[in-house]
Amino acid sequence: MRIPRSPDGYVTTPRTRRAAALLAAGVLAVSLTACGGGDDDEDKGGDKGRGGGTPGTVTLPKLDGETLEVAAVWTGAEQKNFKQVLAEFEKRTGAKVTFVPAQDPIINFLGSKIAGGAPPDVALLPQPGAIKQAVDKGWAKPLGAGATKELGKNYSQGWQDIGKVDGKQYGVYYKAANKSLIWYNAQVFENAGASEPKTWDELLTTAQTVYDSGVTPFSVGGADGWTLTDWFENIYLSQAGPEKYDRLARHEIKWTDPSVKEALTTLAEVWGKKDYVAGGPSGALQTEFPASVTQTFTGGDQPKAGMVYEGDFVQVNIGETKAEVGTDAKVFPFPAVGDTAPVVSGGDAAVILEDSKAAQALATFLASPDAAAIQAKLGGFLSPNKAIDPSAYPNDVQKKIAEALIASGDDFRFDMSDQAPQAFGGTPGKGEWKALQDFLKNPKDVAGAQAKLEADAAAAYGN
């Protein structure tokens, strides 16, 4: 994440080492109890929801007869769990909320809805760049006093700033992601005699150890281009450093820069290694993200792969198998490629498109610990809301990931592709997603990948 905000709508900070050290060294046990509140009477439990809510809950208005539509690109368990949050909002306010499944890129989806005269009231946008686009198009409406107040109580300044455009608050980052994690099949590691690596060289050694035991080291969901951008970003941040990461995210340096060549060359040490990726390049390119996870934790001690890289939300997909997080499925931080282990985050922000009392109330609710705690208990969810009691998370693994995110404060970087214009960083079959899919197919063509990335970035950024 970046602070302060630059003219192009991004926020920037030069600090990442403390957060990286927390993750890499495993110093995750921080006390978050009563973290988000102040000392005034309201924070001590003066607020009550509609119908006599429990002490400490956010105040919400009566909205009997009001209707809302909420759009998000969420499916499966993630959508099902979020609907439980919306059901609680309905219970407290009397409003009726309908979830509208959206498609990527969500800006295009919203554009068609708006053109048809039927926009959703609230949308969950997965990219800061998408928030800025929604503001520039005149779609997004600023948050009111209630939501802004909840954000001020419960969020670090950096998480507030990433939801701002031109100094105005438009987004509530309801959902976050720690995208610097590698999950592994514990039985595979035990059988192979493999250990958790802390550096990139150690990761390659671990991969060879797993391979020698008869199991393919990595599962890659290459059919979903965004997973490939996440691989690149972790390597680039750790290897090139935070300042260059920020500059590349703003396209202040070109994708033909030597630092990009170095990162792609490093990435090819996994993607280009014969039999290191389940199904080979062609198989990976036909594997969607959910399957990349489930095939790592099914098949007993002979799964299709021993490891899968992705964020904390992998737990939702692990839950679809018989594997138990923390026992059968374990996790380690993305290893340090350079001096410091990377800390890359992502998230989804609630943005109001149709301003109303009900829409503002929902934004306020989503900025409160009440809403996030509901979904936290269901698993596969991480919140930047520092007022959540960590005991809300369902297992020690998720609890430690959440504690590390809160402890990092503003000392991490937001997903680079999510900051880019959607034409480059968030559209299936185009831009960075497609260029890295092509690179997965042919990891020897570093120069060709750089040239394609630069051409697409220049077109999308307009420079």
Structure description:
Mean pLDDT is 88; it is low at 1-56. The protein folds into two domains: 2-178 and 345-413, D-Maltodextrin-Binding Protein, domain 2, CATH 3.40.190.10; 181-342 and 420-461, D-Maltodextrin-Binding Protein, domain 2, CATH 3.40.190.10. Helix 5 packs parallel to helix 15 (357-366). With 463 residues, the chain is an alpha/beta fold. The strands form four sheets. Strands 3, 4, 5, 8, 13 and 14 form a six-stranded mixed sheet that branches. A four-stranded mixed sheet has the order 10-11-9-12. The longest helix is centred in the first third of the chain and has 18 residues, at 76-93. Helix content is 44%, strand content 13%. The protein starts with a strand and ends with a helix.
Structure summary:
44% of the residues lie in helices and 13% in strands. With 463 residues, it is an alpha/beta fold. A hairpin with a 5-residue loop joins β1 (2-5) and β2 (11-12).
- How many structural domains can be distinguished in the coordinates? 2
The CATH topology of the largest domain is D-Maltodextrin-Binding Protein, domain 2
CATH architecture group name of the largest domain: 3-Layer(aba) Sandwich
Counted beta strands: 14
Structural class: alpha/beta
State which percent range the strand residues make up: 5-15%
Rounded radius of gyration (Å): 21 Å
CATH superfamily of the largest domain, by name, is Periplasmic binding protein-like II
Query: What integer is the average pLDDT?
Result: 88
**Sequence stretches where pLDDT stays below 50 over 5 or more residues:** 1-56
Distance between the termini: 23 Å
Signal peptide: 1-36
Protein name: Sugar ABC transporter substrate-binding protein
InterPro entries: Bact_solute-bd_prot1, SBP
Region (Disordered): 36-60
